[in-house]
Amino acid sequence: MKINDFGQALGKKISCFTLENDVISLSVINFGARIHELKVKTGSNDVDVVLGCKNIDGYVNDTIFLGATIGRFANRIGGAAFSINGKKYQLDKSEGENTLHGGLTGFHNVVWDSEVIDDNKVRFSYVSKDGESGFPGNLKVHTYYSISPAGEVIIDFEAETDITTVVNMTNHAYFNLNGEASGNILDHKIQINSDFITEVDSALIPTGKILPVDSIYDFKKAGVIKDRFTSGFDNFDANYVASGNINKCSAEVEGEKTGIKLRVYSDQPGIQFYSGKFVNVPAGKSGTSHKAFDGFCLEPQNYPDAPNHADFPSSVLNPGEKYQKRIIFALQK
User: Fold this and answer.
1) 253 with 189: CB under 8 angstroms?
2) Which pTM does this prediction carry?
3) N or C, which end of the chain has less CB nearby within 10 Å?
4) CA-based nearest residue to 32, from 141, 118, 119
5) Which are the contacts of 89, defined by CB distance < 8 A and separation ≥ 6?
6) From CA 165, how far away is CA 161, in angstroms rounded?
7) Cα torsion at 210, 215, 220, 221 (round to 10°)?
8) CA atoms of 235 and 131, how far apart (whole Å)
């Protein structure tokens, strides 16, 4: 494992950890416990398949959660509030009247402690204090990154609390399987193995209804992303109901220029597909800027606004319990 200095953020040293084998090379940083770089080795050249910033200043000023660990609660909480056992908790309003990706002090905006486990595994740790962004409980969290000889990026999340709270963690990598400076992803072909989505209102807050996928959202058979756009629909930002089985592929995407394939596996009950309409990165790793649709996200997670829907999978974590979730990004040329 290589460890390089990546500058400073919030008065603390930022390091970049590179895990590498014959198939992939993964670089992660302890600001936001983020994926900075993910290269697929194709034989002739390496293809970096995730968007990122050229330096630490870019990540500090990042507004789209590039490659970050997301928490305490990924996605949206309606009205920036929820109740546990009759007690209401008011959260940061970070997207209109709602909370997005943990609020103003989300996990993406803090410096994590780091520890090298072995050449192929690193652990980032953080303590989210009781009341941070409005969430109850002192929450101890870990994000583990590891790689396998088969070309898998394995992300493990762990959390424990001293007061009953809610937890929903994911990774927010933006992928471009043609390469991070290759243009947009609208000709990528995607397959999502799901029959249902959670219906949302105009603010993308779930109504509580689970709907069958229609012609636009139905990717059970692989389809080109841009082919689903119409004059009244030009962006995906939807939670698909997933199997929750780590051994079943939730989604598969192929880059039309490189042939690189990404398969996503997770034990989470949902997976958010975002086609990247609001991507805005002034200075990417290659020095070029990134704009609309230059990257897509597949974010395994619990359902949005789960704390406010009793019939959604529970996001509650009690003292004495351990939150444990896994994501696998499997890459193949």
Assistant:
1) yes
2) 0.98
3) N
4) 141
5) 81, 82, 83, 134, 135, 136
6) 7
7) 180
8) 34
Delineate the domains of the chain, giving CATH numbers in brackets. 2-332 (2.70.98.10)
Residue 79 pLDDT: 98
Q: Report whether pLDDT(261) > 90.
A: yes
Write the single-letter amino acid at 71. Answer: G
Distance CA 226, CA 140 (A): 41
User: Would you please indicate which residues are annotated as catalytic (active-site) residues?
Assistant: 172, 299
State yes or no: pLDDT of 273 exceeds 90.
yes
Assess contact for 56 and 65: CB atoms under 8 A.
Answer: no
What are the pLDDT digits (tens) for 301-323?
Answer: 999 999 999 999 999 999 999 99
Provide the CA 85 distance to its chain's centre, in angstroms: 29
With beta carbons less than 8 A apart as the criterion, state whether 154 and 145 touch: yes
Coil/strand/helix, residue 107? helix
Tell me the β-bridge partners of 317.
Answer: 165
- Rg of the chain taking only CA atoms, in angstroms: 19
3-state secondary structure of 241: strand
pLDDT at 43 over 90: no
